Each structure stands twice: as structure tokens, then as C-alpha cells.
Amino acid sequence: MTAILGISGFYHDSAAALVVDGEVVSAVQEERFTRKKHDAGFPKHAIKACLAIGGYKLEELDAVVYYEKPLLTFERLLETYIGAAPRGSRSFTSAMTVWLREKVFLKHTLKQELKQLLTSPSAAPPALLFSEHHLSHAAAAFYPSPFEKAAVLCMDGVGEWATTSAWLGNGHELSPLWEISFPHSLGLLYSAFTYYCGFKVNSGEYKLMGLAPYGQPKYTELIREHLIDIKPDGTFRLNLAYFKYHRGFRMTSRRFARLFGQAPRKPESELTQFHMDLAASIQNVTEEIVLALARSLHSETGANTLCLAGGVALNCVANGRLLREGPFENLWIQPASGDAGSALGAALVGWYHGHPIRNRNPGDATDGMRGTYLGPSFSNAAIAKELETLGAPSHQLADPELFAQLADLLDQGKVVGWFNGRMEFGPRSLGARSILGDPRNRTMQSVMNLKIKYRESFRPFAPAVLEEEVSSQFELDQISPYMLLVAPVKQELCTAMSAEEEQLFGIDKLNICRSSLPAITHVDYSARVQTVSARTNPRFHGLIQAFQRRTGCPTLVNTSFNVRGEPIVCTPADAYRCFMRTEMDVLVLENHLLLKHEQPQAVQDQAWMQEFELD
Questions:
Q1: Count of CB atoms situated within 10 Å of the CB of 111
Q2: What is the DSSP letter of 26?
Q3: How far apart are alpha carbons 51 and 27 in whole angstroms?
């Protein structure tokens, strides 16, 4: 057997993934263990977890593959700063200090870090190989997909040089077609607006996407006229006079602010109609570019299937339009499309490239990602021991009784923390580490945003719907297992707005009831859909079935099990602390049911303060 570990790290979203004979065995982000969101450090704990799940020691692996080539990135930084000189000198000095101290010698650093994970000082470490950034994205997009042949489109901020790249996957082969190079980047354009609207770059882009339906795309033409030149084939060039990401500490220049007539919004300050209209405008431009690129790639390759990866592929609104309006018959999106997923791509590059005799099995009708349930799991016995240590009373119930009781609690409007099976890989909670609610409840969105998640009130929640019922709830006739497609709510479930409501704009639209599923219906009558399969997550599927039997509704609200600013929970202790720190009513740890009102006051006051110790 051939076992290959892929790793990403030292920029953001460090992760590790283990592939054995071409099969994805395990994958997890470092942040889940360190509890530092988007942790960029060496993924020591993620590697340990992947190896433990697979039953391997590091020295037993055939290779470790890093997801990009650091020296090419260093070359890009040097050339960019030289081209911009003398502007950007402070930024250049800061960047070079970091690079010369840490990243130029990254190969040595990786070897030293890996050496610390060997079980014996005399053991020989596996070979250390390097992929390329966009090759890792493309491999993560194509190889786990269910397609034997597909076009592949990767769009992100920047790798070594590429910001957008096109590929053709055929069997085990993945061939490059063309790329758009830094500093011209769709991902960085979107991040520039993320920054300008007061959200954090590399983590707040989904907030900008969620804000867009509250606005009107009135700045679309201004963006096209001044910021970006979009060709008919979807390729583009940015007007760099309006940006500073290539030569400074900020994303946008003063000229950008003058164009729109306002200074960048300060984080946590008021969001106005101006910001909503900006969000709608850049979202509109992004969708146009993605559609145009896809049409060009379809014409060029003749493929009828498309795979997506890179951070832009997490723009599920654009993905929904691509599915409805694009030229491809079938679409598959890597659920961990960002840099964390590149760890998996790097491992797959190590397996397929240079080994032409290796035939590829594209998986079943779904894909090779195992529903993304690729992280650690915890037994009922281990959970019982942890709860005893915490002094937390619980009820252990068999699945049928547990699901029936939870359906009743959800029907009463209770909010449930759901900890089930192996942890998800990627940014979405998909029924393993989730917070659940009743989508029919008109107050559920505000309760979950303000009392559970502690986040902005405008943020929408996603529905988790039984796979076999998706077409009865949404205008969608295919599965969407990874919450990466936005689709309209079924028309017969929607509620027309009154004449007075039609006159509202901006955030005033928030509290209008738009459907019989108000908690998951966004202001534009859309929802970010997750279809739940009995094959990949039978317990979550069983819970939703129990809720359907009780209420007639085959859908639940599903949001990530965390509070604002923290990673998704990993362990039972993480879940319990989150449960006690919020106004969550119920916690389920596998078959253990915990009710908030039964928890001792001393535990409520102190349990969440315990630190999670790492070995």
C-alpha cells in the first residue's frame, strides 16, 4: 500500500490529509485543535490526527507533499515589489524580514518539524516533495469528483503566480490549459471590497456575499469602467492604481475611496445602504466573470462536466448561477476549496503524478470525499468519561428514542448542538458538528445570530434537507451535499410581500417573512442548500426524518457549531464549552443528551473556562 500525506501551512488555514492507494482516508484543519481560527502554523496536530485515523506512523509513509513551491512565491514577491518601487518600500521591508527569517528556508523548516513527529529518533523520515499551488487546487477539484473527464477551473487570491487557472482532467491525467497571473486576481478584487466594507480579508468574504441581497448592484458599471477590464471570454485585467495589495499593507488605495466617495468602513461600525449596494455590485461582477470563464472553458474543451476549487469556488451564489445558466451539464465543487483543501490536493498529486500506470476510480455517483466526514470521532464511552470529568449530567438514549425526543424539542423552538461521528473537513458544518433549529420558526434566525452565534443579524442560515426531498423544498433538481449551491426556495412555499413591504430597502428587509421556512429564506427568496444523504450521514438523515414525521417538514436549520471568532468544535469538551457559553438549549454528544437546565450552576459558571490542553 502507498500512503501519502499532504500538508498546507504558513499562510492561512493550515491542514493535513492522508491518501492511501488513491483513497481519501483523513483530512483535518489545524485550527480545530489549536482553537485559533484560520491557524497558519505548521499543522502538527492535524498530521497527528490524520495518521491516528489511518493507523500510520509518519516514518511508514511513502511521501509527504507540501501544497506549493515557496521559492516561486518568493520570486513573485521580489518581482512585484521591484516593479512597484519605490512605492511599497515599508511593506517590502516587512515582507522580506518574514521571508528571510522563516519562509525562504521553508524546506528545512518542514524537515525539522516533520522530524519531531517521528516515533523513533533513528527512524528515517519519508521523502518531502512539493506540488504547485494551483495544481494542488486542481487535483483536489478533479480527483475526488465523480467524473472520468472534466474541465477544471481554479480561482483564488494568488498561488505562486496564478490567480485563475484552467485544466483538463482525464482519468489520472490533469493537464494545464491556461492561467491568469498576479496581480490580476478575481479573488483579490472580491477581497478588496471585503476590506473596504469593513470585513476581515480571507475570512469575511462570505459576509459580503450574505450582505449582497440587501442591496442593488448600482455600482456595477462603475466597477467595470474603472477597476476591471473584462474581455468577452471572461479573462480580465485590474486597474492597479486603485489597489495596494501588491505593494502595501492595505487592499485598496486612496483612489479607490475617492471613486466611491467614502473612506473604508471601520470594522464593527454601522453598515449602510451604500455598503449593501457595493456588496451587490461586486457580487454581480464576480458572477459575470465566473459565467464567462466557464463558457470559454466549455467551448475550448468540449467537456460537459466542470470541477471547481480555490477560494472563489466558495461563492455559492455564483455557483448556483453557474449551475442554472452555465453551459456544463454537471458541476462538482471541492467542499474544502480554500488552502486547507490544497493539503488533500497535494497528497493526490503525490499519488497520481509520475505514476501513469495508476488507474483512477472516480468514486460512486456522489464523489470520493466521504461526505467530508474525514476528521476524528469519539465513542460514547469516551464521551461518558469526559462528561463525568466535567460533572455534566446527561441521558444516554438509543437512536430511535433520541431522534424522537430531539424532533419534539426542535418543534418547541429549542436550539440543539449536534455532535455526531467524524468531524467535517472544510469550512462548512454538514451534520457532524452543527447547531440545529426549526426553519419554520420566525424568530429562529435572530435567536441563533444574536444569542447563539453572537454575529451580525443580517447573516442568513442554511437549510439541511433530506436528499430525497430537495425538489419539494427548493428549485433544485440535483444533490448539494456540501452547502455550496444557492437555489430559490420552492415558489409554493414562498409568501408574497405586501405593498408596504415592497417599499422597504436595506436591512429593513430582514424581518419580512418570505416563506413557510423563514429561518432559512434569505431576503431574495434564496437558500444555501445542503442535501443530507442516508449513505454518508445516516444519523443526521435519521434525525431529519424524525422531524419530518413530527412536523411534515423535511428540513432543519444547520449552522456551524461555534461562536463568532472561534473554529468549529472538534472534541466533546469543545462542544460542551460552546454549549455552556451560549443560550443553546440542548446538546447531543453521539447518544448522550444534555439539557441546559439540568447542568449544575457551578458547571455553567466554570466549565467553559477550562483550557483545551494540547500534547
A1: 12
A2: E
A3: 10
pLDDT of 611 strictly over 50: no
Q: Could you tell me the maximum CA-CA distance found in the chain, to the nearest angstrom? A: 77
- 480-521: pLDDT as tens digits: 999 999 999 999 999 987 777 666 666 666 777 889 999 999
C-alpha to C-alpha distance for 90 and 130, rounded to whole angstroms: 31
Q: Which of 75-84, 312-321, 421-430, 523-532 has the lowest mean pLDDT?
A: 75-84
Burial 468-489 (b: 16+ CB within 10 A, else e): ebbeebbbbeebbbbbbbbbbb
Residue 151 belongs to some domain of the structure: no
DSSP H/E element including 539: helix 538-551
At 393, list the grid cell: 449530567
Task: Decide: helix, strand or coil at residue 505.
Answer: coil
Other Cβ atoms closer than 10 A to 326: 19
Beta bridge partners of 488: 526
Q: Which has more pLDDT, 74 or 335?
A: 335
3-state secondary structure of 130: strand
Q: How confident is the model at residue 610 (pLDDT cuts 50, 70, 90)?
A: very low
- Residue 454 binned pLDDT confidence (cut-offs 50, 70, 90): confident
Domain containing residue 499: CATH number? 3.90.870.20
Give the pLDDT confidence of 187-232 residue by residue, as tens digits.
999 999 999 999 999 889 999 999 999 999 999 999 999 999 999 9
Say if CB 410 and CB 578 are below 8 A apart: no
Contact 322, 331 (CB under 8 A): yes
- Tell the residue number behind the cell numbers 459558571, with chain if given: 605
Lowest-confidence segment of 146-160, 297-311, 444-458 by average pLDDT: 444-458
Question: Do residue 520 and residue 464 come from a single domain?
Answer: yes
406 within 8 A of 602, measured Cβ to Cβ: no
375 three-class SS? coil
Q: Which helix (H) or strand (E) holds 330?
A: strand 330-333
Report the alpha-carbon distance of residue 53 to residue 7 in Å, rounded. 16
Supply 160's cell numbers: 505562486
pLDDT at 90: 62
Buried-state track 546-576, b at ≥16 Cβ within 10 A, e below 16: bbbeebebbbbbbbbbbbeebbbbbbbbbbb
> Are 187 and 321 within one domain?
yes
pLDDT recorded at residue 101 = 60
Q: What CATH number is given to the structural domain containing 14?
A: 3.30.420.40
User: By residue range, what is the domain housing residue 123?
Assistant: 3-144+335-371
